[in-house]
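User: Predict the structure for this protein chain, please.
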Amino acid sequence: MLSFPKFGHGAVAWVALVPLLSALRALPVLPALLAGLLAGFVQHVGLLYWVTHVVVHYGRLPLALGIPVMMLLALYLSLYTGLFAAGVAFFRNRGIPVVAAAPLLWTVLEYAKSTLLTGFPWENLGHSQYLNLPLIQIADVAGSYGVSFLVVLVNAALAAFVGAGRDGRRRAFVGLAAAGLLLALAGGYGTWRLADVAARFDPVPEQTVALIQGNIDQSIKWDPSFQKETLRIYRDLSLEAAGKGARFIIWPETATPFMFQNRDELHDAVVGVARSTGAWLLFGTPSYTSRDGALRFRNSAVVLTPEGTTAGKYDKVHLVPYGEYVPLRPLFPFIEKLAVGVGDFLPGEGFEPVAAGEARVGFLICYEGIFPYIGRAYGRSGASLLVNVTNDAWFGMTSAPFQHLSMTVFRAVENRLYLARAANTGVSAVIDATGRITAQTRVFERTFLVAPVKIQRIGTFYTAYGDWLVLVCLIALLVLFYRPGGSRRWLKKSRR
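Assistant: Here is the predicted structure, written as structure tokens:
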């Protein structure tokens, strides 16, 4: 937890696992599992403490229930750390050194955590390095899991070296040298790639985007009496931004607290903003459709031309469990309060970019920005600009808005696309194709951010082939698992 924003630093991640790995050296599989559970639980409570704020302040749960809800999520996520620790102990007993087993296990389990039960890749270990620009460039080949692999490899090599006796020090040094070599190669690739990507984008003309941060308090956001005031805030900020040359104006998730598709005075007011600014207007809005004779609601993003006509619309595909729909509703009826007002949302049908002038915009609504497969889907379908619209007002003054931003950095690197992020209460930001945050706002400030972007895409290995590294790690683990004889021979030699 000390490796992540807003209180941590990425440098801590390179030694964060050393105490756990050192403790596992003397533990059988079951005690190792328990040690991993404990370590993972402490980590995730410190990382996800903000969940209590969300469910208490906006889910209206009592604090006595809000804390256990957060701890239940932390306990579930700690299962993966427990399995990691048990796996390290298991392979150690078969003669497989921690330097080999740990990074393979962590990478596979981190991927499982990120995909199973709709997935929750919140602050995977590699995300801690979002400010380490040379290192994270390998994400365009191996994704964020490649960064996690390297971080765990270094931790394992350090733990093996620190805990090695006189007889094993030489072998541990070889492992440490191998980890250092891979790290140097990754850094060298990153340094070259930073210059290469900059050179490829250099001739592309800049376009100016304006990110409108309305800072609308969540407690009044859906109050019908505040709808016109909300529109006034966004209109005034947009007109001011247009005066600074903005070609694209981006409002956050559900910036319009009403159904834009209804042709009424509120609809006309939004259209009027596009016409008055003469810019492309991109904004989040709730929408609805009829299915089986009933109205179903969607979380959508709309693009208006400078003339005020609708150019296209995207409906959010990856919904937030217990935020936009309620799985296992009979088992957890009290959490249904978190699905604000309208009940379950209906997911969209795919990740198709929306044309906005010369840009093909790939929308990432809210926490869709933390999922690698969504950014990759847009990269494969020809997006030339990623736009993340979100409402982080739920999080209050916790670490969550900063954590949320850190993960979206990787979507830009993986697919070599600029990413513009408009957040209701911040952090709004522009991220270039190398993952550099070129401009950002402060949180809980009513403001706008005008910054240049470049509308361009260059293909990447990751966009084409995805999480191939995870498959390689899984195959390697299976090979180690099904070669017990070889493992026993290695163990006997190591004891001589």
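Confidence is low (pLDDT under 50) at residues 338-342.
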